[in-house]
Each structure stands twice: as structure tokens, then as C-alpha cells.
Amino acid sequence: MAEEVVDLVLGDIAFGVAQADPVVGVLLELGEMLKLMGAFYLTCVLFIVFVLGGVLWIVTRTNILKLLKYLAREYLLIVATSSSESALPNLMAKMEHVGVAKPTVGVVVPTGYSFNLDGTAIYLTMAAIFIADAMNMPMSLGEQVGLLVFMIIASKGAAGVSGADLATLAGGLQAHAPQLLDGVGVIVGIDRFMSEARALTNFSGNAVATLLVGKWTKTVDLQRVHYVLDGNDPFDYASMTDEHGAPAHAEESEVHVSAHPPAPINPADRLQPTPQVDLDNYARRDGDGR
Prior knowledge:
By secondary structure, this protein is mainly alpha-helical.
């Protein structure tokens, strides 16, 4: 009897473990994806603060944290839309306000939105390495370096809309490592949650690049930059126009509202009466003519 009870208990335990295996597998996969997301966010933060911040300090003696604070509202807009394209007009206006010449801003910022995509390059490389590990196809150090260089090149010209980087990743793997292409579906579910970090990093890189290019081309007033970033001249969003700072024409922007609506105009009042023809004179002239 005791043996039957032991066999029954062991059988129930084995059945429970077998039923729990799929759940445990899902939890483990979810944990690995959370690790990828955390590592990507941490990498983006370190890149902005130390790499971009270090270069900005060496070249212009500008604190990256003050620049991030100056662009705080644009960061909120990017988080809400998951795309840096929505903050493009604000970035151009603020870079002009901070002291960079308008021609430099007009060239660097739009060009950087297509070719200076730091966050996209980081995402493509980390996602490709994660896919390789998930598919049990680990890469050597040389292969990882080659993949990094290739993905940096592949990120140039990528669209700035949300979700376009996933298509860029698939195209890059198809060209560089076709055996990993089937693994793109592994990160489809978390791509949306990483798009904010990509967009924020791309936006920060373009803001820093504008100041650096302005310094190299001598088209930036560094005293003005430090003055504005210290909070002495806050940016006025009401001044934003198509010309980034020139107020709108008063005659076009003002709307005059009268207390009493104008009286309706009757088109019939403008009509002229048709001239009448004197039939007797007309008949008399006609007879004389004959």
C-alpha cells in the first residue's frame, strides 16, 4: 500500500513538472528580453553622458547635462511619439536660439536626422548579437567587430519613423548574416519598447553634433551658448515660426471681431435696370430708312 502511495505522489510530481516546463521556458525567455532592454537603455545612457558629453566638453567646454535640461520638453515629445522626427522643428529653433548660426543649423540638423543615428547603430548591433545568442549561433570577437562596422554603415539613411529600424535590422542581417534572419521575430515584441531609447539617443547626437560643427566652422557663439544653457535666456515657444524666431506678420495673424455682425448684402441691389426701347421711334426711323 505504501509503495502505491509513493508511486502516486511521484507521478503527480512528474506531471506537475512537465506542465510547468512551458511556463518556466516563457519566463526565462521574458527574462532574457528584459536583460536586452535593460542593457540597451543603459548603453544609450552611458553613450550620451560619457561619449557625447565627453566630446562636447573637450571641444566646447559645455556641460551635456545642461544641454539635456535645455531640451527637456523635446525629450518628452519624443517619448510620447517614439520618433525624433516630431522634435525636428523645435531642435532647429532651439539651436539657433542657443547661438548656432542659422546656415549651420539648416545643414547639420536635417542631415544628421538621416546619417547621424547613434541610437540606431547601437540598437542594430546589440539586437543582432542577441539574436545570434538566442539561436545558439554565438559570434567570435572578430565577427562581432565586423557586424558592428556593418551595422553602423547600414544605419545611415534609415528612416526616422517608429519601427523602421526593425526593417533595417532585417535587411542588414539578410546581407551580412542570412542565417540569423529568422531570429528577427524574437525581438519584434520588445522593439516598440526600445524605440524611445533609440530616438532619444539619435536626438541627443544631433544636438551635440550641431554645436561641434558650429565650433569647427566658427559659426557658434560659445558665450551665448553658456549664457542660454545657464538659464538666463529661456526659449520662447511662442516665437516659433517658419523662420524660427521672426514674428508673424501682424496683418496676417490678427483677427478683428466686431461686436455686431455686418448686414447681409443683397446682390440684387447692385443690378442696373435694363434700358427700355421706344418702339414708336424705332418704327418711325425704320420707315424713313426705307
